[in-house]
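testing teh design pipeline on a random one, pls ignore if ur not involved
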């Protein structure tokens, strides 16, 4: 999701009856995001395939993170909410095993590298106390820019994590480049670098000695 839209959504949740801090508001926003995704039929062949690949990626990690998987359908391909719930679309079953593992390992990279906590700390630094328009409006622009920069960095870090995870699984991490081709070219958004930057960063990660 675009950071600006995310920020606007977050700030639109401000103003409930009782005092909340910004992390409460972020959690509520994440919960809305979670509940908005329709679940896939858990017994369907695509859902089982996604779960199987997820377990394979987890098995290759040096330590097991506290993580849950929810297989979804709808427009979202893969996303992590609350720092530990990976939502993965049943349509990942249409990709090759390597591409699917890359996408799932990328999401696990967000979990393992505590990206949700990092983002929450940025929001908390800009809005340290009670949340209301008087505390959010003056900092919204600067906060949005910093959150966007961090979100981009987290995407590159999650891709690099996925490359390392693929190597540990004995899979060719260069398959990730195929995944980007199959998923189509995208431009920069506030939360995600566009395909061109992702591929450049990925090539750098691939060039690193294992
Ligand atoms: Zn990501």
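output:
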């Amino acid at each position: 999701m675009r950071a600006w839209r995310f920020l606007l959504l977050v700030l639109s949740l401000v103003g409930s009856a009782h005092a909340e801090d910004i992390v409460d508001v972020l959690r509520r926003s994440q919960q809305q995001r979670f509940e908005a995704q329709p679940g896939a039929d858990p017994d369907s062949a695509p859902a089982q395939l996604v779960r199987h690949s997820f377990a394979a990626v987890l098995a290759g990690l040096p330590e097991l993170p506290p993580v849950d998987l929810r297989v979804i359908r709808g427009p979202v391909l893969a996303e992590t909410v609350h720092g530990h719930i990976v939502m993965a679309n049943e349509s990942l079953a249409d990709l090759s095993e390597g591409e699917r593992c890359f996408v799932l390992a990328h999401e696990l990279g967000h979990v393992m590298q505590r990206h949700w906590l990092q983002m929450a700390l940025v929001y908390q630094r800009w809005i340290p106390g009670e949340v209301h328009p008087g505390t959010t409006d003056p900092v919204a622009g600067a906060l949005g820019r910093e959150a966007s920069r961090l979100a981009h960095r987290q995407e590159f870090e999650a891709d690099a994590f996925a490359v390392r995870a693929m190597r540990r699984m004995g899979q060719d991490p260069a398959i990730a480049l195929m995944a980007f081709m199959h998923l189509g070219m995208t431009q920069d958004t506030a939360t995600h670098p566009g395909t061109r930057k992702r591929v450049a960063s990925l090539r750098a990660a691939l060039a690193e000695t294992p």
